[in-house]
Design brief:
Layout (H helix, E strand, L loop, with lengths): L1 H11 L4 E3 L2 H7 L22 E7 L4 H14 L5 E7 L4 E4 L5 H4 L2 H7 L2 E4 L7 E3 L3 E9 L5 H16 L4 E2 L5 E4 L9 E3 L1 E7 L3 E9 L4 H7 L7 E3 L12 H4 L5 H13 L10 H7 L2 E5 L9 H9 L1 H4 L6 E8 L16 E9 L2 E8 L2 H5 L5 H5 L9 H13 L11 H14 L3
Parallel strand pairs: 1-14, 2-3, 2-14, 4-5
Antiparallel strand pairs: 3-7, 4-6, 7-12, 8-9, 9-10, 11-12, 13-15, 15-16, 16-17
Helix pairs in contact: 1-6, 3-11, 6-9, 15-16
Length: 427
């Protein structure tokens, strides 16, 4: 019955579905073109004068959609017009502004699967996106930012549209009772949430799992032995479930409609069902084409988000230390060692670049013929904490060979290189 009511609402209000033209976008969207240059206090109107829109991004590129969020945050005036943007992405992992990607994500897996990694401008934890997620961003003036209000709208939409009961926990995540999974977890998370609060404008965004690829999600966010110590903001792991696992009627498109109409039928500041009359006062659903032509300056924002310097280089300083047992066949056979011989690799990484590195070579490896470890250290400083550093290490070890025609690392050098590869790729 709930879905029947939703279909009736949608059919009865099709006039609010609007496709923006480029001319309309230049007048109605870019209303705050010089907002970032102005210094004034928001002059907020009464609630009855505030209208709402649901913007539907036509892009599925994570960098484009994050750039669009940032563009709207910087340029639009939301004092009289609140906006909820809905968007989807191709497979990607999105980390918070102050997080460590090597700690939060399985970087080698992402590279292998060509899954994008993006750092957003808001805080919060790491999330996985694909086309089975519905992402929602609520824009409002800073003074009228209300995370609980936004989450209550989603909670109400889930129940009105699909009869799904949910609760909002202390961390402001939306969770549902897991009645299908045989598990000790009483609740299962379906949503992650984060926000950015500026001087005049604020936005709050979350992702809802509808029918995401949970296998790839698990692998992309898998925690591994990495030896990283950092003050970066850690994510809080939670069990997750797809909404479609609870009710097969739930689709991304259907949920988008349900949440969109719940947003439009509710006044801007308090949770009251205004029904069709409230919907008719709003600006409705609007298709948004996030291109440079529509949003001048968007390309520059996107390009910055795509750079290694932003995604990885903005990582807070961290240290990493790993130890590796040396295989007996690499040790001097004429010696007897009282303890396990371990190679220890330690380094400090600042802005994604190796700042300091130590190779602690065990006596057994030195006695078997591995020399000159100090001479390779200077080649690693300033290198990216990636395979770039591994290449520098290998080149440095090759240059130590006395014979100029030797172009291959020996077994001991290959072992050191393999261990170093595991560190910089955090395998």
């Amino acid at each position: 019955m709930a879905q029947s009511m939703m279909r009736k609402i949608a059919m009865g209000n099709m006039f609010v579905m609007v496709g923006l033209t480029r001319r309309a976008s230049s007048r109605s969207i870019a209303t705050g073109k010089s907002l970032m240059d102005k210094k004034f206090k928001n002059d907020l109107p009464p609630e009855r004068e505030v209208t709402k829109s649901v913007f539907m991004s036509q892009s599925t590129d994570i960098y484009t959609n994050l750039a669009l969020e940032d563009w709207m945050y910087r340029n639009m005036d939301f004092s009289k017009h609140h906006v909820m943007m809905v968007w989807r992405n191709e497979p990607c992992v999105v980390i918070g502004r102050h997080q460590n990607p090597w700690l939060e994500a399985n970087v080698p897996f992402l590279s292998e699967k060509e899954i994008a990694l993006a750092r957003r401008n808001s805080g919060g934890g790491t999330v996985y996106h694909d086309r089975g997620n519905l992402n929602i961003t609520f824009f409002s003036p800073r003074e009228r930012y209300d995370r609980k209000y936004n989450l209550e709208l989603i909670k109400r939409a889930l129940f009105r549209g699909f009869g799904i009961k949910s609760v909002i926990n202390d961390r402001h995540d939306i969770i549902v009772r897991d009645k299908y999974k045989v598990s000790f977890f009483k609740y299962t998370e379906i949503s992650g949430t984060a926000a950015k609060l500026g001087r005049l404008t604020a936005y709050h965004h979350c992702t809802l799992l509808v029918n995401a690829n949970k296998a790839d999600l698990s692998k992309a966010l898998a925690k591994r032995e990495h030896g990283i110590q950092t003050n970066a903001t850690p994510s809080t792991p939670s069990p997750v479930v797809n909404l479609s696992d609870l009710d097969k009627r739930v689709t991304v498109e259907g949920l988008q409609t349900a949440v969109g109409y719940e947003y439009l039928r509710t006044p801007a500041l308090h949770l009251e069902d205004g029904g069709d009359k409230q919907i008719s006062r709003q600006r409705g659903f609007q298709f948004i084409n996030p291109t440079e032509e529509w949003f001048p300056g968007l390309a520059e924002l996107k390009n910055e988000l795509q750079t290694w310097d932003w995604s990885f280089g903005r990582t807070p300083v961290f240290t990493v230390s790993r130890s590796f047992p040396v295989p007996p066949e690499l040790l001097s056979p004429s010696k007897v060692y009282s303890a396990t011989q371990e190679l220890i690799i330690s380094m400090t990484v600042d802005k994604g670049l190796i700042n300091d590195v130590t190779l602690n070579i065990p006596p057994g490896l030195v006695e078997s013929g591995f020399y000159g470890e100090a001479s390779v250290i200077t080649h690693l400083k300033g290198k990216r904490f990636t395979s770039e550093a591994l290449t520098a290490l290998q080149d440095a070890m090759l240059t130590r060979h006395t014979s100029g025609d030797v172009k291959k690392l020996d077994d001991k050098e290959q072992f050191v290189a393999k261990c170093f590869d595991q560190v910089v790729n955090t395998v």
